[in-house]
Hints:
This protein is 40% helix and 23% strand.
Amino acid sequence: xxxxxxxxxxxxxxxxxxxxxxxxxxxxxxxxxxxxxxxxxxxxxxxxxxxxxxxxxxxx
Length: 60
């Protein structure tokens, strides 16, 4: 799970929270960082058609 510290990462947490609001709690950002090795970021969103996305956006 992604957790923002008090000083940084608020923008990424905001993006993850918005994804969860639109698509459900099983979706969002997954960020794993290892010092000296790098950072992996996965974005989990469901595949939707253009019409399905319009309905979702209009409902939120």
